[in-house]
C-alpha cells in the first residue's frame, strides 16, 4: 500500500496490525478520546514546521523518534533540569526519552517524521 505520510498517519499496534488514518488537521480535529486511543500504538506521522514550536511536549509512556527529512532545526530536550540543545541536519534523528519535555527551534521550514507512543502526551507553553 502506497501512502503519503503527511496526509495519512499509520498506527502500529503491539499485536503487529496497523491502521491507516487521515492525518493532519483531520486527525487533530478528532475528539480527544479518539486521539488518545491511538496513543497506545506507535503512531507514525509527518509534519512541516515553518517556525519554532509554540509549546513543549512530553510523552510519559514511551520514547519518541524524530527524523529531520528537510530543513534546519534544533531539538531542545529538558534533562535533569537542564535544556540540552541538539542541532539536527537533514538525514539525522533524535531519540527523545519518555518523560522528557521537548520542543524545536526551526531555522528554515522543516519536514519531520515522528514515531511515538503518544498515550498521555502533555503540553506546556514555551515561555
Give your account of this protein's structure.
It is built from 2 helices and 9 strands. With 127 residues, the chain is mostly beta strands. It has a single domain, classed as Jelly Rolls (Sandwich). The strands form 2 sheets. Strands 1, 2, 3, 5, 6, 7 and 8 form a 7-stranded antiparallel beta sheet that branches. A two-stranded antiparallel sheet has the order 4-9. A hairpin with a 5-residue loop joins strand 1 and strand 2. It starts with 7 loop residues before the first strand and ends with a strand.
The total strand number stands at 9
Please give the share of residues in helix.
under 10%
Structural class: mainly beta
What's the mean pLDDT score?
92
Tell the overall outline.
globular
N/C terminus separation: 42 Å
Second CATH tier, the architecture: Sandwich
Within the CATH hierarchy, at the fold level, what is the topology?
Answer: Jelly Rolls
Strand percent estimate: over 45%
CATH class: Mainly Beta
Largest sheet: 7 strands, antiparallel
- Summed up, the domain count is 1
CATH homologous superfamily grouping: Jelly Rolls
H-E order: EEHHEEEEEEE
Features:
single chain; 127 residues; mainly beta; Jelly Rolls; two-stranded antiparallel ribbon; 9 strands; 54% strand
